Amino acid sequence: SKSIEKWPRYRDPQGFELIDVDFSVMYPDKSVEILINFDYFAEKILPIYRSEVKDKWSAKHLDCLDNFDINKDTKDCITTLLMHAVMHPPVLPGRIKLSITDAQRDLVLWIHNILDLDNERERWDPSEPKIIVVGPVLENLQEFYVDYDGILYQLPTFVKCLDTVMKLCFVFNINYPIRSKYIWTFFQQYFFKIESPDCHPKIANLLGKMTK
To answer: In total, how many domains does the chain have?
Structure first.
């Protein structure tokens, strides 16, 4: 695995392109899987959401996926956040139970302006990569970032943020953020077809439903 300290070019604004290259060396046939297959995933998981989503926030935002006025990146973000409603978050050390809403906020941070980011950074461990989305409301997202160890990558789409976080974890050999590790492990197995020793029964259950 590589180290940010030893390879300062990763700190460049385009450093995510180096992560792409490194991942494609590690897994030559997997580098674009999530980018080309996310739309199919979103279509396939929708009936599962419609039958299983129960909490109020998720039910409200599930309706957004049918709204033609909402842009694609926003729908992709909501589709990802809704995963916590059908695959409930892990119990943390000390038997701390996360709510679905807390887990969703941990997976993706929504802010009104990227200038607000410094005020938010103290709320999470900088050694965990974080997706940041920017827009006047969550239903109208305009900018997409990944923040890791004080490095901020601006990315063209929300799905590219998902792609970058997973590749970053492989290239630097770091664990997925603990509160959303079920989501990341699911994506790893579903899109990249890379097995994980950390495949909780909840992940296996959703994988089974998605591959019927």
So the answer is: 1
**What is the predicted pLDDT for the residue at 161?**
98
Q: Is residue 3 part of a domain?
A: no
The pair phi, psi for residue 159, each rounded to 5°, is: -65, -35
2 lies in some domain: no
| Residue 1 covered by a domain | no
pTM above threshold 0.90: yes
Per the structure, the complete domain to which residue 83 belongs is given by 8-210
Among 207, 205, 188, CA closest to 197: 188
**3-class state of residue 152 by DSSP:** strand
The residue ranges of the chain whose pLDDT is under 70 are: 1-5
Q: What CA–CA distance (Å, rounded) separates 52 from 72?
A: 23
For the chain, give me the number of helices (H) and strands (E)? 10, 6
